[in-house]
């Protein structure tokens, strides 16, 4: 049964986006350690003694800032402190535009701002001589790292310019501030920023295009199209040129499909940061992936309107460069029933993680993979003889992709479930459903299950070795899932796909077993005494990604062994325990702002800023006992990267 479902699918998605005022695309916030919140302050006079104060903040793309009302046990809430005497707060402050999402690490529904902050507070003057209302805002801004921010504010009540007075730094404070500076060696390593590579999404797009090549909609077109160019052209050189142009146009068409998302980026650059916690968008992606899966199973086809293909086919007869372009466009349209689900997966994956730029890279990889065979076979026509003939193996490939689509669909539903805490897909249920899917895939590959497009039934020995080999792998994977379901393994290779171990019917207790120092100077003294390298761990009690690193990376057996060779010094930048009075001091930051270092967290946050010019957590630094940097500091990374980083530090220490 054929359905022209493309228009319907995108109409539903676009309708949802319009109603929710959602658009895709995101520009990266390149300088993560600059202030991601720009504040402005204004006031309105309500009476002779009453004023309405407005705190307005513009948040950088992809960041979010936690509310004053964020529940206890979650990330750090915003705190607004008034230092002016002679005023009285009238009721609680009002916050506009709050977002709410479940945080599976802290097990709480958190409240936060995205894009804009607006807070209003009514105040009453108890001293008529008050001209300015001053104070400080403390807040936590997060992306894949978290930064604790402090901002001084000053409201002018008489129209004059409100200045934050410059505070004198006494000699004692200067000495204590100087003691925070480390005599770091190899300091140039700090300047080496480690940006996320976009090659990953390009490679995934390339693999997606390669998979599309194996489908019945595209594979038979390769020899037909290449033969057309080589035989219809007057010279072989002209045929190769036309085939190359054809491939170039295929690449161009798929790249052009991503361009509108860059323009939509100007409307709402924040949305890509919220897709992973947007319940209804995740549910829609779940429905779409299920829809794609059953099209791969052969119950219906997702096709563009036939008139589109006919028009493009007619246009391709024009000849010349224009005709070749329309030939490429015709291929894109008529092959949509096979490429559409793969492109849909690429769309969802890119938009939920990297934005319009990564979508373009993914589409470029997809188009390049799809275009390469047409160019290569035109260059080497004899290769055509080595191509396998079209047949039932392509139907098998489509069904295989259908099962993968269902597996990914469950991931999107799991995202929504985690946000709303429905309890529908706790870890055991999710893993159990994946086990069923891959067990069914195994049965299909061995011929025990059949779908509408499958040919005549065969005995097990009549199936190809490749199909049976994949069936064995699928069976082994389903056993791996079954063992994970009963706690026999940790499903480490699936990290990030199943719900966290804390979101389960039987939560697993996390314990790293690592003995740590929580004071730099004590830890460094121990390292010098035992001649051991040091790992500085700038962290926070309310740091989500710090906990994720500790639960999913530090628990790796090889990482554990490597970490035992270091003196681990964990410095909590949000520790609210006060320092002894004699250790409290005033500190002047690079921007001229003076901060009173009162708590342990204040001290270590300033220590991090002074020595490493950063204020984000998690942040990991490897040092020798004589304060020589052993490697470039890292932040939130995967297990393999972290392991290699630790190994590099040990080698540098030895050398």
**Total DSSP E strands:** 18
Distance between the termini: 68 Å
The number of helical elements comes to 20
Q: Quaternary status of these chains?
A: single chain
Strand content: 15-25%
Mean pLDDT, as a whole number?
75
Radius of gyration: 30 Å
Helix content: 40-55%
**Main beta-sheet strand count, sense and barrel state:** 7 strands, antiparallel
Low-confidence stretches: 1-33, 193-197, 265-277
Large-scale geometry: globular
Structural category is alpha+beta
Characterization of the model:
There is one protein chain. The N and C termini lie far apart (68 Å). The strands form five sheets. Strands 4, 5, 7, 8, 10, 11 and 17 form a seven-stranded antiparallel sheet that branches. A four-stranded antiparallel sheet has the order 2-3-9-6, with no helix packed on it. Residues 1-33, 193-197 and 265-277 have low confidence and may be disordered. Helix 3 (199-213) packs across helix 12 (356-379). The protein has helices spanning 6-19, 171-179, 199-213, 221-232, 236-256, 259-264, 271-274, 279-296, 306-315, 320-334, 336-351, 356-379, 392-420, 427-445, 465-485, 520-530, 544-552, 557-563, 600-612, 639-654; strands spanning 2-3, 37-45, 50-59, 64-66, 79-82, 87-96, 99-103, 108-114, 116-125, 132-142, 146-156, 301-302, 534-539, 567-572, 585-588, 594-597, 616-617, 619-623. A hairpin with a 5-residue loop joins strand 15 (585-588) and strand 16. By secondary structure, it is α+β, with helices and mostly antiparallel strands.
């Amino acid at each position: 049964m054929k359905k022209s479902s493309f228009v319907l699918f995108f109409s539903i998605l676009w309708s949802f986006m319009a109603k929710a005022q959602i658009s895709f695309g995101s520009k990266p916030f390149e300088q993560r350690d600059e202030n991601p919140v720009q504040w402005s302050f204004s006031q309105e006079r309500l009476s002779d003694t009453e004023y309405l104060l407005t705190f307005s903040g513009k948040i950088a793309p992809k960041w979010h800032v936690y509310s004053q009302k964020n529940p206890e046990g979650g990330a750090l809430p915003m705190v607004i402190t008034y230092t002016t005497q002679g005023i009285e707060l009238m009721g609680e402050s009002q916050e506009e535009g709050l977002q709410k999402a479940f945080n599976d690490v802290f097990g709480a529904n958190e409240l936060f701002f995205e894009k804009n902050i607006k807070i209003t507070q009514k105040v009453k003057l108890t001293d008529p001589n008050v001209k300015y209302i001053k104070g400080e805002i403390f807040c936590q801004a997060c992306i894949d790292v978290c930064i604790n921010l402090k901002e001084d504010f000053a409201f002018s009540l008489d129209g004059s310019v409100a200045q934050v007075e410059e505070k004198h730094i006494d000699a004692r404070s200067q000495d204590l501030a100087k003691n925070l500076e480390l005599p770091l060696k190899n300091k140039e390593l700090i300047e080496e920023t480690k940006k996320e590579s976009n090659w990953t999404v390009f490679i995934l797009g390339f693999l997606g295009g390669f998979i599309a090549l194996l489908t019945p909609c595209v594979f038979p077109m390769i020899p037909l199209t290449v033969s057309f160019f080589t035989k219809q052209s007057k010279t072989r050189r002209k045929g190769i040129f036309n085939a190359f142009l054809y491939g170039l146009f295929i690449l161009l068409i798929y790249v052009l499909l991503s361009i509108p998302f860059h323009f939509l980026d100007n409307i709402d650059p924040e949305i890509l940061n919220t897709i992973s916690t947007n319940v209804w968008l995740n549910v829609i992606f779940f429905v779409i992936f299920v829809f794609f899966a059953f099209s791969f199973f052969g119950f219906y086809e997702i096709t563009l309107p036939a008139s589109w293909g006919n028009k493009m086919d007619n246009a391709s007869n024009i000849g010349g460069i224009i005709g070749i372009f329309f030939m490429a466009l015709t291929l894109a349209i008529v092959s949509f029933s096979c490429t559409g689900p793969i492109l849909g997966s690429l769309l969802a994956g890119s938009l939920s993680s990297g934005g319009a730029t990564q979508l373009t890279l993914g589409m470029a990889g997809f188009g390049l993979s799809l275009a390469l065979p047409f160019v290569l076979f035109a260059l080497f026509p004899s290769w055509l003889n080595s191509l396998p003939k079209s047949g039932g193996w392509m139907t098998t490939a489509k069904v295989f992709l259908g099962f993968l689509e269902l597996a990914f669909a469950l991931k999107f539903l799991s995202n929504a479930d985690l946000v709303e805490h429905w309890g529908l897909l706790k870890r055991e249920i999710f893993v159990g459903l994946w086990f069923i899917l891959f067990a069914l895939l195994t049965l299909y590959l061995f011929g025990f299950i059949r779908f509408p497009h499958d040919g005549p039934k065969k005995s097990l020995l009549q199936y190809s070795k490749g199909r049976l080999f994949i069936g064995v792998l699928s069976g082994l994977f389903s056993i791996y899932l079954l063992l994970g379901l009963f706690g026999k393994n940790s499903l480490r290779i699936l990290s990030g796909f199943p719900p966290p171990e804390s979101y389960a019917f039987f939560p697993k207790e996390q314990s790293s077993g690592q003995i740590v120092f929580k004071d730099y100077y004590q830890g460094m003294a121990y390292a010098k005494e035992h001649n051991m390298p040091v790992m500085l761990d700038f962290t926070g009690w309310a740091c989500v990604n710090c906990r994720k690193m500790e639960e999913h990376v530090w628990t790796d057996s090889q990482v554990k062994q490597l970490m035992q060779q270091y003196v681990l010094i964990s410095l909590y930048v949000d520790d609210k325990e006060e320092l002894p009075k004699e250790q409290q001091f005033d500190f002047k930051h690079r921007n001229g702002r003076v901060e009173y270092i009162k708590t342990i967290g204040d001290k270590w946050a300033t220590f991090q800023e002074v020595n490493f010019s950063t204020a984000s957590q998690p942040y990991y630094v490897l040092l020798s006992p004589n304060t020589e940097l052993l490697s470039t500091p890292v932040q939130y990374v995967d297990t393999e990267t972290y392991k290699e980083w630790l190994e590099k530090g040990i080698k540098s220490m030895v050398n």
